[in-house]
Write a structure and sequence with these properties.
2 helices; two-stranded antiparallel ribbon; binds FE2/S2 (inorganic) cluster; globular; alpha+beta
């Protein structure tokens, strides 16, 4: 079972947190990288993000965002199909 879903992942993050987020869509621990990009030879690399301030972020859960790894609202169009 993957962690992907047709809505964003809401996360409370703190200054200094480091996230390694999947960019290939193959991780079974979506939205976090599980190394599948390497095992599957995708040629992609995960997003390495360091949080600069305490805040709430919305990470794309549907792998369709044009602002990946952040949500751009595109999941709403998927539900309408
Ligand atoms: S598993 Fe997708 S980028 Fe690592």
């Amino acid at each position: 079972m993957s962690g992907w879903q047709n809505k964003p992942f809401k996360m409370e993050v703190k200054e200094g947190d480091r996230l390694v987020l999947c960019s290939c869509g193959l991780s079974k621990k979506g939205p976090f990288c599980d190394g599948a990009h390497s095992r599957e030879g995708t040629g992609k690399q995960p997003y390495f993000i360091t949080i600069e301030e305490d805040k709430t972020i919305f990470i794309c859960g549907c792998c369709q965002s044009s602002k990946a790894p952040f949500c751009d609202g595109g999941h709403k169009l998927l539900k309408e199909k």
